[in-house]
Design goal:
By secondary structure, the protein is of the alpha+beta class. It is built from 3 helices and 8 strands, in the order H-H-E-E-E-E-H-E-E-E-E. It has an 8-stranded antiparallel beta sheet with strand order 4-3-2-1-5-6-7-8, covered by helices on one side. Helix 2 packs antiparallel against helix 3.
């Protein structure tokens, strides 16, 4: 009887945990939510995948939309563009990239790791919201777009995190650019 009770309790706990966690579309625009999204991206494409584009767009009616251009073999020069909408992944196109002769394709791509990660991007979304609330007196700005912007030149020092926020009722878009270390480069609106 104890084994049945323990198994039932474990099953119920698992169901509650997975139903409360939600998919990418329901994650908050913060460090915790973006860490969950990163885990789901890695589950889909693998820990060692390479990216040239990665963005999270928020849509009021459907939640977060995750877009990536990804490959597991950079030297093949073949990548795929994928979107995750309402927690369903769909490949939208295939891409063949060109690189300068004598270079490696991986030099023009990034991996999700310590230096490029969505937890840091989520922290910067929170920081941007706080700054916008304090400086512009906007209540509850919402995420429009958060992205890892990697330069076409492959210069890692020019890679950026980009955060775009809007007032809760729409209107002006406020853009923040940060270094990979999280230092503000500029704020535009």
């Amino acid at each position: 009887m104890t084994k049945i009770f323990t198994f039932s309790l474990l099953l119920i706990s698992t169901l509650v945990f997975t139903s409360c966690g939600g998919g990418s579309s329901k994650q908050e625009a913060n460090a915790t939510g973006f860490s969950v999204i990163e885990s789901q991206i890695k589950d889909k494409f693998g820990e060692e995948a390479y990216y040239t584009d990665l963005s999270i767009t928020y849509n009021e009616s459907i939640g977060n939309i995750v877009s990536v251009t990804v490959t597991d073999n950079p030297e093949s020069l073949k990548m795929a563009q994928w979107n995750q909408t309402q927690d369903n992944w769909n490949q939208t196109s295939e891409v063949t990239i060109e690189i300068p002769e004598g270079t490696k394709a991986a030099d023009f791509m990034f991996q999700l790791n310590e230096s490029h990660n969505l937890k840091k991007l989520g922290e910067l979304v929170e920081k941007s919201k706080t700054q916008l609330t304090e400086e512009k007196k906007l209540e509850k700005p919402k995420l429009h777009l958060a992205a890892v912007k990697y330069p076409d030149t492959g210069e890692v020092s020019k890679a950026e995190y980009v955060v775009m926020l809007q007032p809760k009722n729409g209107g002006t878009t406020f853009s923040f650019s940060y270094t990979l270390a999280g230092e503000l480069i500029k704020m535009d609106y």
